[in-house]
Amino acid sequence: MADPVPAPAAPAASARPFVHLHCHTHYSLLDGVNRIPDLVSHVKSCGMNAVAITDHGNLYGAIEFYNACKSGGIKPIVGYEAYVAPGVRTDRSASRQKEAATHLTLLAMNRRGFDNLIRMSSAAYLEGFYYKPRIDRGLLEECNEGIICLSGCASSELSRLLLADSQDDAKRLVEWYVRVFGDRFYLEIQNSGFEIQRQCMEMTVDLAAKMGLPLVAT
After folding, report:
1. pTM of the entire predicted model
2. How far apart are the C-alpha atoms of 203 and 133, rounded to whole Å?
3. Which residues have C-beta within 8 Å of that of residue 97, sequence separation ≥ 6?
4. How far is it, in rounded angstroms, from Cα 114 to Cα 77?
5. Who is most buried in 60, 117, 201, 218, counting CB within 10 A?
6. Residue 184 phi, psi (nearest 5)
7. What is the DSSP letter of 134?
8. Are 53 and 78 in contact (CB under 8 A)?
9. Crossing angle of helices 62-72/36-45, nearest 10°?
10. DSSP-derived 3-state class of residue 59
């Protein structure tokens, strides 16, 4: 009997391509500390060839970011961490900020996607502002073309459902996003050392395995 062919060795961690897809800049008020020129310089010094910004509820830094990346030889990925209303964006019945919106990560794939991010961001301020500028599922259905959707951080709707042990509701939510975004939807996991992220990560990985969906670590 011939000796089995050994499996190829896994590449070293440093050889695996990685880019940051969930970065906040100083345009995320009271949340982000990255200044765009410094962010681009740091990404380049780490040997990365691309980076995304996903500021909270706005695209204020998009043009500055794009120009800085182009000047620095880095691929810019323009994104947006949206605030999503629990119902329609015009409803203002929530009594607390935490109840008024959850988080969702959106990344533009192309010019069409960027235009759709602009449409959603504008509608969030003009029509959905309540505590925060909010979009809703209707806008996501209308404006999803050219956009990659990640399920979001520990403050996302999915994470809140998982933490509440609402597995059936979590599955239905994911099914809705898959229906709208198709293969442009990914389950997002994070681990910056916070316990809530660890809990969300474990449950999200389990859900991804059960539903056969891809994961993105941000």
Report:
1. 0.91
2. 29
3. 131, 132
4. 10
5. 117
6. -100, 15
7. E
8. yes
9. 30
10. coil
Q: Max Cα separation, the chain?
A: 72
197, pLDDT greater than 50? yes
Residue 106 has pLDDT above 50, yes or no: yes
* 84 alpha carbon, distance to own chain's centre: 12
Structure tokens given for 91: 């409803």
Residues counted in the chain? 218
Position of tokens 């996501």? 140
CB-based contact 81:24 (threshold 8 Å): yes
> Which value, in Å, is the radius of gyration of the alpha carbons in the chain?
18
Task: Please give the pLDDT value at position 15.
Answer: 53
Please answer whether residues 51 and 65 qualify as being in contact, where contact means their C-beta atoms are separated by less than 8 angstroms.
Answer: no
Place of tokens 């979590």: 170
Q: Between β-strands 50-53 and 75-84, what pairing exists: parallel, antiparallel or unpaired?
A: parallel
Instruction: Count the alpha carbons within 13 Å of 177 in the hemisphere toward its beta carbon.
Output: 25
Instruction: Write the CB contacts of 2 (distance below 8 Å, at least 6 apart in sequence).
Output: none
